[in-house]
Amino acid sequence: MKAIIRNLSDMSDSRELLEARTSPAITSFLVILLVLIGSVITWSFFGQIDETAKAQGVVRPNEKVSTIQSSTLGQIEDIFVSEGMYVEEGDSLIVLQQEEYVTELNYRLEELEQQKQELVLLERYMQSIEIDQNLFQSNIEEESYYYKLVEQFNLEYQQLELDYMTADQQIKSTKTELEQSQSSIDLNIEANKTNMETTKQELSKAITQLTEDIKQEKNLKLSIQSGKNKISSTDELRTAQYEQYSTQLKQLQVDLTNAKNTYETSLKLGDRFISQVELEQQLGVYEKATLQVTMLEKEALLSTESNITSYETKLEELNLEYSKLIQPNGSLQLEIASLDLKKEQLNIQEQELKQKTELTETAEVTSLQKYRLDRVVIIQASIDDKQSNIESIQENIQKIEQELENKTMKSPVSGTVNIVKELNKGDVIQPGEPLLTILPTDETMYKASIAVTNQEIGKIAIGDQVKLNFDAFPKQSYGSLVGEVTSIGSDAVVQQDGLRYYIIEAAIANEPLVNQKGEQGEIRVGMTAEAYIVTNSQKIIYYILEKINLKE
């Protein structure tokens, strides 16, 4: 491209532009712009901005809502309320069918009256027994049963008197038997003599056997002491005992010899080959083996000596018994004297029988009194049972009356009815199933139940300000309602969306919201709102710097 060269005089338009002045409008615009920028900077430096946590809330009454539910299974008979209806405390709300309980109550009342009548009859029955007079009449149906009982008691009482008369006859019969017993004693004396002769023969045989046993035991002792068998070959028992002893002794002696040799060998080897501990252990084994040999010998001798002493004692007893038996004035005379004593005892029994006759007459009176008292005790037990039955029936009646009372659901407080479940006559309701709620209507304060996420809950504290924008009243027209956080849930709950939220509560005034036209929006229980919890306030400049990452 070829360059074009022009003279300065030819550039008249550009020169005019260079020499021209700036327009006043532009200057004004720039000044205004600078002022605005300065104002914004000043506002951002001194102004404050709130940091909020957004959540969803619902209005709840400040007082607890009363939930109406049945405590029993039943079918609806009548409904006295409708949605939004105002009820006073104690007003009937729903009545369940009561026919079955009314029938049961009437039956129990009749049963109670019957039990009370029977109690009166039992008390009269006891009085009849105590005064020995039948207070009942046989021609009255209710009393005929007890009339027969009293008559039966009188017959049994008379029979008891007759039994005592029979007992007197038995005593006389016993006296005759005693006389016969005295005759039989003479026969027993002869029989005892025969038994005595037999006893002498048995004692003689036993003495001979004991003498032989003592001799053989002494041979066993001598064998143990000498180490040689001196027992008769016919005595198999003691021969076996000695052989067993010899076998044990030989084994122990072998153990003793081995222990002794081991110890002496170790002793000769000295400390270089055998430690002092091992040497002491071997010495202990050697001493133990020595002790076992000694103990075996002593135990065998002690056992033999004990048997000899026992046999000798028994022999002395048998000799003494035999000497007494063969003495002219010994056992036989004692036996005869014993029979004479029995005769005397029979005489004593005869005297006692006479005394028994006298006592029987006294016992007759006592026993008859006891018989009457026993019947009184039985009747008293029946009275106690009847009173217990009456108390039980009365308790059942109270339960039925309580069930009847439960069949009528009444309002526990005054307020407005909110129907939780649509109800019709004839519907069956389950125990514990929520049916209605009663909302208090005289509250000056409500509370907002707000569900806060895990990410926001850490910023919130009790006393924080809450701004509520109600879905029913647009914020642009009605504005917001301001409250204050009063409680924070200690644990998270799972909502229907499957997420976990913390429930916080905020106190709000029961004041209507007013729009620009002057229309009022009444706050109602159950309304939903967006809640903005003010968690912090800071200068606007700091907030902007944080957003553009110029301030930590």
TrEMBL record:
The protein's superkingdom reads: Bacteria
Segments traversing the membrane: 25-46
* Matches recorded under InterPro entries: Beta-barrel_AprE (IPR058982), MFP (IPR050739)
Keywords of this entry: Coiled coil, Membrane, Transmembrane, Transmembrane helix
Is the keyword Methyltransferase in the record? Answer: no
Q: Does Transmembrane helix show up as a keyword for this record?
A: yes
AprE-like beta-barrel domain location: 449-535
Q: Which GO terms describe its cellular component?
A: membrane
Q: Which residues form a coiled coil?
A: 95-262, 301-359, 383-410
Q: What PANTHER family does this protein's entry cite? A: EXPORTED PROTEIN, MEMBRANE FUSION SUBUNIT OF EMRAB-TOLC MULTIDRUG EFFLUX PUMP
What's the protein called, per UniProt?
A: HlyD family efflux transporter periplasmic adaptor subunit
Give the species this sequence originates from.
Candidatus Pristimantibacillus lignocellulolyticus
